[in-house]
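Title: Prediction job returns without error message
Component: structure pipeline
Severity: low
Priority: P3
Assignee: unassigned

Description:
Job completed but the reporter wants confirmation the result is attached to the right record. Sequence as submitted:
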Amino acid sequence: MFLVFPYEGMGQRSALLLIDIQDFYFPGGRSALVEPEKAAQNAAILLDHFRKENLPVIHVRHNAEQGGMIRNIVKPLLGEMVFSKDEVNCFVGTGLLDSLRSNQIDTLVICGMQTHMCVEAATRAAGDFGFKCILVQDACATKDLVFGTITIKASDVHFSTLATLRSYAKITDSATWLSETEQVKK
């Protein structure tokens, strides 16, 4: 069974792509983000939906010894795909692209950790490879960035990144996505 999306131009063979929801991004981790718990909770809601509908779920994790475990709230189940990466872009050096193509996936619902890095790289690459993308913004998190003497707040980093990704993805939030998805099923 594949989900049909209500967005014009969205495809019919979809998968959830959870990017780097790993322990080191949470409080006490070596690269803690701003409000990663909230983002992970929303990602877990999406994950629960995909599991209930028996739709493909793909976990991506950055190779890291300390704090590299995927967070328990979105822990992979036996049989769910997990790709480990060494680069920001989850398509580089992994079998992700081949797997998506061999499973005839045409649409990715994307969420995860760091909006401005790995999530952005995945969204841009997926779009460039021809996938239709839905980026669930409240299931993503990032952090404050510093450039010279200027500190850019996490919310500004997050929303400016989302603004640049509008030509690559439909940007939505988890509640809207779930509501619209349920309307399509009726």
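Comment from assignee: result matches the submitted record. The longest helix spans residues 36-52.
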